[in-house]
Amino acid sequence: MTYPDATYLADEGEVSAVFRTADAPPELSIGGGRTNVHHLATGATTDGHFGLYRWEMGAAQTGGSPHFHRTFSESFFILEGKVDLYDGDAWATREPGDFLYAPPGGIHAFRNADGPAAMLVLFAPGAPREPYFEALAEIVESGRELSPEEWTELYARHDQFMV
User: Fold this and answer.
1) How many angstroms separate the CA atoms of 22 and 40, rounded?
2) How does pLDDT run across 87-121, given as a tens digit for each residue?
3) 64, 110, 114, 117: which has the fewest Cβ within 10 Å?
4) Where does residue 4 rank: exposed (0-12), middle (13-18), buried (19+ CB within 10 A)?
5) Residues of the chain with pLDDT under 70
6) Are 54 and 103 in contact (CB under 8 A)?
């Protein structure tokens, strides 16, 4: 592997870093706080290089079902609690410090295993995942029930293919 082509060509560096404090509130709450999502760095913020989110799950079990993406990878780094991660072959309970990488096409899923848990979720390149998360939050909040065809359309629009 080699370094990619330069994207910054000026002779001097610039002041352009973006800082987010640890006490910033979550940008999105799903299910009345059942899951809180902190947008640490969105694809828009990073010029599409990556998206990084802190995903905080409460006491009630929540998470995603097995799926894959065609255009981006997804990685999980457990920060707190226990998280069940699915690597396309089997579910395993993981603890703080554990990491899972799912390349494009790699089947994966997650759910909090036993009470509250938090993890970092990294998308690369930085796909626009915020509209997908917001749609899920709205569906949960409204209590609306989608037909299988509506779920398939929502998933396809956001590069999510269920297994």
Assistant:
1) 10
2) 999 999 999 999 999 999 999 999 998 899 999 99
3) 114
4) exposed
5) none
6) no
Length reported for the chain:
163
Domain boundaries, the chain: 28-162
d(CA 112, CA 83): 4
Q: With left for phi above 0 and alpha for psi between -120 and 50, is residue 11 left, alpha or beta? A: alpha
**Which of these, 106, 120, 86, lies nearest to 160 by C-alpha position?**
106
Q: How far apart are the C-alpha atoms of 163 and 66, rounded to whole Å?
A: 6
pTM of the model: 0.94
Q: How far apart are CA 128 and CA 142, in angstroms?
A: 23
How far apart (Å, rounded) are the C-alpha atoms in residues 144 and 100?
Answer: 32
Top-tier CATH class for 28-162: mainly beta
